[in-house]
Amino acid sequence: MPLTAVIDFETTGISPGCGDRATEVAIVLLEGGRVVDRFQSLMNAGVRIPSFITQLTGITNAMVAGAPDAAQVMTQASRFVGDAPLVAHNAAFDRKFWQAELDRAGLAAPQPFICTLLLSRRLYPQAPNHKLGSLVDFHGLPRTGQAHRALADAEMAVELLGQIQHDLRTRHRVASPDHALLMALQRCAKSAVGALMARHAST
DNA sequence: TGCCAGGCCCTCTTTAGGGCCTT
Protein backbone atom coordinates (compact mmCIF):
# COMPACT_ATOMS: atom_id res chain seq x y z
CA MET A 1 0.00 0.00 0.00
CA PRO A 2 1.59 3.33 -1.03
CA LEU A 3 2.36 5.84 1.70
CA THR A 4 1.28 9.49 1.69
CA ALA A 5 2.75 12.17 3.97
CA VAL A 6 0.58 15.18 4.84
CA ILE A 7 2.74 18.08 5.99
CA ASP A 8 2.30 21.51 7.52
CA PHE A 9 4.88 24.13 8.49
CA GLU A 10 4.60 27.04 10.90
CA THR A 11 7.12 29.72 10.00
CA THR A 12 8.30 33.23 10.83
CA GLY A 13 6.80 34.61 7.59
CA ILE A 14 5.86 33.76 4.05
CA SER A 15 9.12 33.77 2.13
CA PRO A 16 12.28 31.76 2.84
CA GLY A 17 13.90 33.87 0.11
CA CYS A 18 13.51 36.89 2.39
CA GLY A 19 14.97 35.15 5.41
CA ASP A 20 11.88 33.55 6.85
CA ARG A 21 12.43 30.21 8.59
CA ALA A 22 10.35 27.30 9.81
CA THR A 23 9.45 27.17 13.51
CA GLU A 24 7.44 23.94 13.59
CA VAL A 25 6.72 21.01 11.30
CA ALA A 26 4.14 18.25 11.52
CA ILE A 27 3.75 15.25 9.23
CA VAL A 28 0.94 12.70 9.28
CA LEU A 29 1.77 9.45 7.50
CA LEU A 30 -1.10 7.69 5.71
CA GLU A 31 -1.24 4.18 4.31
CA GLY A 32 -4.32 3.37 2.28
CA GLY A 33 -6.00 6.48 3.68
CA ARG A 34 -5.44 5.43 7.31
CA VAL A 35 -3.16 7.29 9.72
CA VAL A 36 -0.23 5.03 10.57
CA ASP A 37 2.21 7.50 12.18
CA ARG A 38 2.75 11.13 13.13
CA PHE A 39 5.81 13.39 13.42
CA GLN A 40 5.76 16.81 15.08
CA SER A 41 8.49 19.10 16.34
CA LEU A 42 9.21 22.71 17.07
CA MET A 43 12.57 23.75 15.61
CA ASN A 44 15.15 26.36 16.49
CA ALA A 45 16.37 28.19 13.39
CA GLY A 46 18.06 30.93 15.39
CA VAL A 47 15.80 33.74 14.18
CA ARG A 48 13.30 35.86 16.07
CA ILE A 49 9.59 35.27 15.60
CA PRO A 50 7.64 38.45 14.80
CA SER A 51 4.99 39.28 17.40
CA PHE A 52 2.14 39.02 14.93
CA ILE A 53 3.24 35.48 14.07
CA THR A 54 3.24 34.60 17.77
CA GLN A 55 -0.28 36.04 17.99
CA LEU A 56 -1.31 33.91 14.99
CA THR A 57 0.31 30.61 15.97
CA GLY A 58 0.93 30.83 19.70
CA ILE A 59 4.55 29.85 19.05
CA THR A 60 6.91 32.05 21.08
CA ASN A 61 10.63 32.76 20.95
CA ALA A 62 10.97 30.97 24.29
CA MET A 63 9.32 27.86 22.86
CA VAL A 64 11.70 27.57 19.90
CA ALA A 65 14.71 28.50 22.05
CA GLY A 66 14.25 25.21 23.85
CA ALA A 67 13.59 23.24 20.66
CA PRO A 68 16.07 21.10 18.70
CA ASP A 69 18.17 22.67 15.97
CA ALA A 70 16.33 23.10 12.64
CA ALA A 71 18.79 20.91 10.71
CA GLN A 72 18.38 18.11 13.25
CA VAL A 73 14.58 18.27 13.00
CA MET A 74 14.63 18.38 9.20
CA THR A 75 16.93 15.35 9.08
CA GLN A 76 14.43 13.44 11.19
CA ALA A 77 11.52 14.72 9.08
CA SER A 78 13.23 13.70 5.85
CA ARG A 79 13.84 10.18 7.18
CA PHE A 80 10.22 10.01 8.39
CA VAL A 81 8.83 10.94 4.95
CA GLY A 82 11.23 8.84 2.88
CA ASP A 83 10.13 8.96 -0.75
CA ALA A 84 6.41 9.26 -0.01
CA PRO A 85 4.56 12.00 -1.91
CA LEU A 86 3.84 15.03 0.27
CA VAL A 87 0.40 16.62 0.56
CA ALA A 88 -0.17 20.16 1.83
CA HIS A 89 -2.79 22.90 1.68
CA ASN A 90 -1.33 25.55 -0.60
CA ALA A 91 1.59 23.24 -1.29
CA ALA A 92 3.56 25.98 -3.03
CA PHE A 93 4.10 27.50 0.42
CA ASP A 94 5.10 24.32 2.28
CA ARG A 95 7.23 23.12 -0.67
CA LYS A 96 9.30 26.32 -0.50
CA PHE A 97 10.06 25.80 3.18
CA TRP A 98 10.56 22.01 2.78
CA GLN A 99 13.14 22.63 0.05
CA ALA A 100 14.79 25.60 1.80
CA GLU A 101 15.14 23.94 5.21
CA LEU A 102 16.35 20.63 3.72
CA ASP A 103 18.83 22.53 1.54
CA ARG A 104 20.20 24.28 4.65
CA ALA A 105 20.56 20.83 6.27
CA GLY A 106 22.42 19.55 3.21
CA LEU A 107 19.63 17.17 2.25
CA ALA A 108 17.78 16.56 -1.02
CA ALA A 109 14.05 17.16 -1.37
CA PRO A 110 12.93 14.82 -4.17
CA GLN A 111 9.36 14.28 -3.02
CA PRO A 112 6.51 15.44 -5.29
CA PHE A 113 3.84 17.67 -3.72
CA ILE A 114 0.07 17.33 -3.99
CA CYS A 115 -1.96 20.46 -3.16
CA THR A 116 -5.38 20.25 -1.48
CA LEU A 117 -5.97 23.92 -2.31
CA LEU A 118 -5.65 23.32 -6.06
CA LEU A 119 -7.70 20.12 -5.83
CA SER A 120 -10.44 21.91 -3.84
CA ARG A 121 -10.62 24.79 -6.31
CA ARG A 122 -11.28 22.23 -9.06
CA LEU A 123 -13.69 20.00 -7.14
CA TYR A 124 -15.53 22.50 -4.90
CA PRO A 125 -16.01 25.76 -6.84
CA GLN A 126 -19.16 26.32 -4.77
CA ALA A 127 -17.20 26.59 -1.49
CA PRO A 128 -17.37 30.07 0.09
CA ASN A 129 -13.57 30.26 -0.07
CA HIS A 130 -10.69 27.79 -0.14
CA LYS A 131 -8.98 28.45 3.16
CA LEU A 132 -8.21 25.19 4.96
CA GLY A 133 -10.49 25.91 7.94
CA SER A 134 -13.33 27.06 5.71
CA LEU A 135 -13.15 23.89 3.62
CA VAL A 136 -13.14 21.74 6.77
CA ASP A 137 -16.29 23.56 7.96
CA PHE A 138 -17.83 23.42 4.46
CA HIS A 139 -17.58 19.62 4.49
CA GLY A 140 -18.55 19.25 8.15
CA LEU A 141 -15.19 17.67 8.97
CA PRO A 142 -13.80 17.52 12.52
CA ARG A 143 -11.36 20.09 13.85
CA THR A 144 -8.85 18.85 16.38
CA GLY A 145 -6.23 20.84 18.26
CA GLN A 146 -5.31 24.50 17.92
CA ALA A 147 -5.60 26.01 14.46
CA HIS A 148 -2.34 27.46 13.11
CA ARG A 149 -0.31 24.85 14.93
CA ALA A 150 1.40 22.42 12.61
CA LEU A 151 -0.14 19.14 13.77
CA ALA A 152 -3.69 20.51 14.00
CA ASP A 153 -3.46 21.99 10.50
CA ALA A 154 -1.89 18.79 9.13
CA GLU A 155 -4.72 16.77 10.67
CA MET A 156 -7.26 19.09 9.00
CA ALA A 157 -5.49 18.60 5.67
CA VAL A 158 -5.70 14.82 6.25
CA GLU A 159 -9.47 15.14 6.71
CA LEU A 160 -9.77 17.29 3.59
CA LEU A 161 -7.69 14.85 1.54
CA GLY A 162 -9.95 12.03 2.71
CA GLN A 163 -13.03 14.02 1.67
CA ILE A 164 -11.49 14.70 -1.76
CA GLN A 165 -10.75 11.00 -2.32
CA HIS A 166 -14.22 10.04 -1.04
CA ASP A 167 -15.87 12.46 -3.47
CA LEU A 168 -13.73 11.25 -6.36
CA ARG A 169 -14.90 7.69 -5.66
CA THR A 170 -18.58 8.43 -5.04
CA ARG A 171 -19.39 11.52 -7.13
CA HIS A 172 -16.95 10.97 -9.98
CA ARG A 173 -16.84 7.15 -9.87
CA VAL A 174 -13.04 7.06 -9.82
CA ALA A 175 -12.16 3.58 -8.59
CA SER A 176 -8.64 4.47 -7.53
CA PRO A 177 -7.95 8.17 -6.77
CA ASP A 178 -4.22 7.52 -6.48
CA HIS A 179 -1.27 9.94 -6.42
CA ALA A 180 -1.03 9.99 -10.21
CA LEU A 181 -4.66 11.02 -10.61
CA LEU A 182 -4.38 13.70 -7.90
CA MET A 183 -1.26 15.10 -9.59
CA ALA A 184 -3.04 15.15 -12.95
CA LEU A 185 -6.13 16.78 -11.43
CA GLN A 186 -4.22 19.59 -9.73
CA ARG A 187 -2.33 20.33 -12.97
CA CYS A 188 -5.24 20.27 -15.38
CA ALA A 189 -7.23 23.37 -16.35
CA LYS A 190 -10.53 23.83 -14.54
CA SER A 191 -12.34 23.48 -17.85
CA ALA A 192 -10.73 20.06 -18.38
CA VAL A 193 -11.72 18.54 -15.00
CA GLY A 194 -14.86 16.91 -16.39
CA ALA A 195 -13.01 15.21 -19.22
CA LEU A 196 -10.28 13.98 -16.85
CA MET A 197 -12.85 12.55 -14.45
CA ALA A 198 -14.68 10.86 -17.32
CA ARG A 199 -11.48 9.15 -18.47
CA HIS A 200 -10.87 7.73 -14.99
CA ALA A 201 -14.48 6.84 -14.14
CA SER A 202 -15.26 3.19 -13.74
CA THR A 203 -18.05 1.88 -15.93
C1' DT B 1 18.50 53.38 -1.65
C1' DG B 2 14.52 51.04 -0.75
C1' DC B 3 11.96 47.38 -1.30
C1' DC B 4 11.25 42.65 -1.01
C1' DA B 5 6.67 35.90 -2.13
C1' DG B 6 4.91 33.52 -5.66
C1' DG B 7 1.92 30.34 -8.04
C1' DC B 8 -2.77 29.97 -9.41
C1' DC B 9 -6.86 31.78 -11.49
C1' DC B 10 -10.39 35.06 -12.99
C1' DT B 11 -11.58 38.84 -16.04
C1' DC B 12 -13.62 44.86 -17.25
C1' DT B 13 -7.44 39.63 -20.36
C1' DT B 14 -3.97 37.86 -23.67
C1' DT B 15 1.60 43.76 -24.94
C1' DA B 16 -2.33 43.01 -17.63
C1' DG B 17 -3.94 43.51 -13.21
C1' DG B 18 -5.52 41.96 -9.02
C1' DG B 19 -7.49 38.61 -5.52
C1' DC B 20 -6.66 34.27 -3.17
C1' DC B 21 -3.87 31.34 -0.07
C1' DT B 22 -0.03 29.99 2.97
C1' DT B 23 2.81 32.31 7.85
From TrEMBL:
<dbReference type="InterPro" id="IPR012337">
    <property type="entry name" value="RNaseH-like_sf"/>
</dbReference>
<dbReference type="GO" id="GO:0045004">
    <property type="term" value="P:DNA replication proofreading"/>
</dbReference>
<dbReference type="GO" id="GO:0003887">
    <property type="term" value="F:DNA-directed DNA polymerase activity"/>
</dbReference>
<dbReference type="GO" id="GO:0005829">
    <property type="term" value="C:cytosol"/>
</dbReference>
<keyword id="KW-0808">Transferase</keyword>
<dbReference type="Pfam" id="PF00929">
    <property type="entry name" value="RNase_T"/>
</dbReference>
<dbReference type="InterPro" id="IPR013520">
    <property type="entry name" value="Ribonucl_H"/>
</dbReference>
<dbReference type="GO" id="GO:0003676">
    <property type="term" value="F:nucleic acid binding"/>
</dbReference>
<comment type="function">
    <text>DNA polymerase III is a complex, multichain enzyme responsible for most of the replicative synthesis in bacteria. The epsilon subunit contain the editing function and is a proofreading 3'-5' exonuclease.</text>
</comment>
<keyword id="KW-0239">DNA-directed DNA polymerase</keyword>
<keyword id="KW-0548">Nucleotidyltransferase</keyword>
<protein>
    <submittedName>
        <fullName>DNA-directed DNA polymerase</fullName>
        <ecNumber>2.7.7.7</ecNumber>
    </submittedName>
</protein>
<dbReference type="InterPro" id="IPR036397">
    <property type="entry name" value="RNaseH_sf"/>
</dbReference>
<comment type="subunit">
    <text>DNA polymerase III contains a core (composed of alpha, epsilon and theta chains) that associates with a tau subunit. This core dimerizes to form the POLIII' complex. PolIII' associates with the gamma complex (composed of gamma, delta, delta', psi and chi chains) and with the beta chain to form the complete DNA polymerase III complex.</text>
</comment>
<feature type="domain" description="Exonuclease">
    <location>
        <begin position="3"/>
        <end position="170"/>
    </location>
</feature>
<dbReference type="GO" id="GO:0008408">
    <property type="term" value="F:3'-5' exonuclease activity"/>
</dbReference>
